[in-house]
Design a protein that fits this description.
Length: 350
């Protein structure tokens, strides 16, 4: 049984086939497959100040019109429904680039749960302190290369020095342990896995490699081109001794290994070749107020419309529960009928 904050009774349903009726009185975000979501990913903007080639085209994307974005007050209200009524215990802010949202420190301050952000780090130099003062717990910074020229080619912006400055600022502001996220691409940066781990060890950052997923706006992902978890582990093993981390993984997407006997660790998120859907504890909210049950969902549940039409917190909570009840058992990337979601990663919130 998953623990939830005091006062929120949770009925965990027995696994059932799809189409099972949702039992009355269910208060948490349970689905029909025995999972309960307690971890909320909130996209606060779909805009970005980088143009990573595996994420979006050079010209950017048609951004959401500002009137469609939840205001800071609306976001805070929806998050409070999740943390207050639905048993959400952890909120991660993402995007797009979450540090582009001016109200982020105020949103973090108003969030009644553990908080973290996933960021490209460009603006951390100036925002690490205000965010730490607002109560932010942790940061994940995306870093795919240590080489400034490669960084320029990969993100289409010459900003690697800003990422390094952001990392230093995060540590100085006490946002530790800082985690690094790396996506490897064949023939682009896949030779850098050991160097990135060495860099992380040297600075006390926790590095996690993420398998590239079919979520790019350009639909350029190909399974055969993707650098797999097995290849990443083989590359790391050429320089380090990796042993399975004995600590419990829980719902965490990363499988972790002790590096050279520990205590340092490295993680690999094998979303495609080692899916962890059976243990997923996530629910997602887009910047325009849509609930998604999965990164790969092809349907969304609108909370913004009801919110603006005067729905109560209980009404919003009920819509969210109903959405989560219909969460599919897995992402189905390996299914020949797999359909990439219409929205790209930057609009869903990675
Ligand atoms: N802009 C922020 C950043 O880059 O950290 C937050 C949003 S970004 C979409 C979140 C994470 O998703 C980043 O670590 C990024 O590298 C990763 N990402 C983006 N597109 C991806 C893809 N197609 N497959 C796997 N990871 C991806
Ligand atoms: Fe921006 Fe993050 Fe996408 Fe890169 S991965 S373009 S930093 S949203």
């Amino acid at each position: 049984m998953v623990a939830v904050p005091l006062g929120i009774p949770l009925v965990r349903p027995a696994p059932a086939g799809s189409g099972a009726v949702r039992p009355a009185g269910l208060s948490g975000l349970a689905d029909q497959h025995g999972r309960v979501a307690t971890d909320l990913r909130v996209s606060v903007t779909d805009r970005c100040n980088l143009r990573c080639t595996y994420c979006m085209p050079a010209e950017g994307l048609p951004w959401l019109p500002s009137g469609e974005l939840l205001t800071d007050g609306e976001l805070i209200r929806v998050i409070s429904v999740a943390t207050g009524l639905l048993g959400v215990r952890e909120v991660r802010f993402t995007g797009g680039e979450p540090l582009l949202r001016p109200g982020l420190p105020a949103i973090v301050r108003a969030t009644g749960a553990r908080t973290s952000i996933t960021t490209n780090g460009l603006r951390l130099g100036r925002l690490a302190v205000p965010l730490a003062e607002a109560g932010l717990g942790r940061v994940n910074v995306s870093l795919d290369t240590l080489d400034p020229l490669r960084f320029g080619a990969l993100t289409r912006r010459d900003r690697l020095a800003d990422v390094f400055a952001g990392l230093r600022a995060a540590v100085a502001a006490g946002l530790a342990p800082v985690k690094l996220n790396t996506v490897l691409m064949r023939g682009v940066n896949d030779d850098e896995a050991p160097a990135l781990l060495e860099f992380a060890l040297e600075h006390g950052y926790e590095l996690r490699f993420i398998e590239q997923m079919p979520l790019d706006a350009q639909h350029g992902w190909s399974r055969s081109e993707m650098v797999t978890a097995a290849e990443i582990l083989a590359a790391l093993s050429s320089r380090f001794t990796l042993t399975p981390d004995p600590s419990a993984r829980g719902g965490a997407p990363a499988e972790t290994w002790l590096v050279d006997g520990g205590p340092a660790k490295v993680g690999v998120i094998g979303s495609v070749t080692r899916p962890f859907c059976g243990d997923c504890d996530r629910t997602r909210l887009t910047a325009d107020g849509q609930v998604r049950t999965c990164l790969f969902s092809v349907t969304e549940t609108d909370l913004r419309g009801p919110l603006r039409a005067g729905a109560s917190d209980d009404d919003l909570a009920e819509l969210w529960r109903e959405a989560m009840w219909g969460k599919l058992p897995g992402h189905g990337i390996d299914d020949p009928a797999f359909l990439q979601p219409v929205r790209p990663m930057s609009a869903i919130g990675g």
